[in-house]
Design a protein that fits this description.
It contains 13 helices and nine strands. By secondary structure, the chain is α/β, with parallel strands linked by helices. A nine-stranded mixed beta sheet has the order 1-4-3-5-2-6-7-8-9, sandwiched between helices. Helix 5 packs across helix 6, helix 6 crosses helix 12 and helix 9 packs parallel to helix 10. The protein is elongated and about 65 Å long.
Length: 357
């Protein structure tokens, strides 16, 4: 039997954002990529921030790249060509960089084929070949459409992830990102289970100045989600970000909760949610794989945000996750600043991964 529309028993407290002018209320027409949205403002400032973001990415992946290439340099020292010994050491380096065993073996197999075909590959050529193979690995899950905002507004992003991975912070930074593109954003606090979850999210909503929908702690999360979408429709919002509980230790309850949220959202908009985005902690290395596996058993995931890549040498986890799960990575977290949750650009990421400066 179809579940009835959730009735909100508690009064909804809505934290209003700033006064919105007529111009600010205009939505972006059609489905546009981030590049198309940004192309409207190709000023000196936008070019500066583009370079700033690239510098931030290089800085955020510094530990990963320096550790990775430090090990490779030791592996090929005194070698004039890539031989079996070099490949064995490269395999060990990739695995210890948290690329993952399956992905590592795939990369090594491809390099072995190229070595056999070309007969001779110098150690100087190894970086270039490795870069090409890593780009190919990311290509397998990379989808340009992941950056589109759907024509059927509002575009709803249901955000999931265990506690402690940076989910609340990521939602705040995503709100800032979409708002900076001229889009109207609403945040909904449907994690009504964790103590202080609502308050922490409200702090972020105030900081980035977007509308915020909440109920009391312990309220029905589906009720909060329903009210958030209804409010967003009334306000002609473009993007809705809905936080959810991270109680992965109780998979059945979490599965039922997320299923109910989806059903309730679809009563307002059959296409909602357009995205179910999983936030995982990149600094945990192989544990990030486990987080992804467990959540994929609970609900369908179609986008990823990998956080806390700065300050860790485990950035290789991005490669393994791209390869093993075939889920597009949409955002990566490479610092504490508002701009340090960046849209995942495969070329820029690989360039920074191979940055030796």
């Amino acid at each position: 039997m179809e579940e009835p529309v959730v009735v909100i028993e508690e009064p909804v407290v809505v934290k209003e954002g700033p006064v919105v002018t007529h111009e600010e209320e205009k939505t972006v027409e059609g489905s546009k990529t981030i590049d198309e949205l940004d192309s409207n403002n190709k000023s000196v400032f936008s070019k500066f921030f583009s370079k700033q973001k690239k510098d931030s990415l290089n800085k955020g992946l510094k530990k990963t790249s320096s550790t990775f290439f430090g090990k490779i340099s030791k592996a090929i020292i005194g070698k004039s060509k890539v031989d079996e010994d070099v490949l064995d050491k490269l395999e060990e380096i990739l695995i210890t960089s948290d690329v993952g065993v399956k992905t590592t073996l795939k990369i090594i197999d491809k390099i072995e084929i190229r070595v056999a075909k070309d007969k001779y590959i110098s150690s100087d050529e190894l970086d270039l070949i490795l870069k090409e193979e890593i780009m190919d690995i990311i290509d397998s899950s990379y989808d340009e459409d992941q950056f589109n905002i759907s024509e059927n507004r509002p575009h709803v992003i249901l955000v999931v992830g265990v506690n402690g991975v940076g989910k609340t912070t990521s939602i705040g930074k995503m709100a800032h990102h979409y708002k900076s593109l001229g889009l109207k954003v609403v945040i909904g606090a449907a994690d009504t289970f964790r103590a202080a979850a609502i308050e922490q999210l409200e702090v972020w909503a105030n900081r980035v100045e977007v509308d915020f929908i909440k109920q009391e702690m312990g309220s029905d999360p589906a009720s909060v989600a329903f009210d958030t979408l209804e409010s967003a429709i009334n306000r002609k919002a473009d993007v809705v970000l809905i936080d959810t509980a991270g109680r992965l230790h109780n998979k059945t309850n979490l599965m039922n909760e997320l299923s109910k949220i989806k059903r309730v959202l679809q009563k307002k908009n059959i296409d909602s949610p357009q995205e179910v985005l999983l936030v995982i902690d990149g600094s945990t290395g192989q544990n990030a794989f486990e987080q992804a596996k467990q959540f994929m058993n609970v609900t369908e995931i179609n986008a990823l945000a990998v956080t806390k890549l700065d300050g860790t040498a485990k950035g290789g986890v991005v490669l393994g996750i791209s390869d093993q799960f075939k889920i597009p990575i949409k955002f990566i977290g490479i610092g504490e600043g508002l701009e340090d949750l960046q849209l995942f650009n495969k070329k820029e990421f690989v360039d920074s991964f191979f940055n030796k400066s």
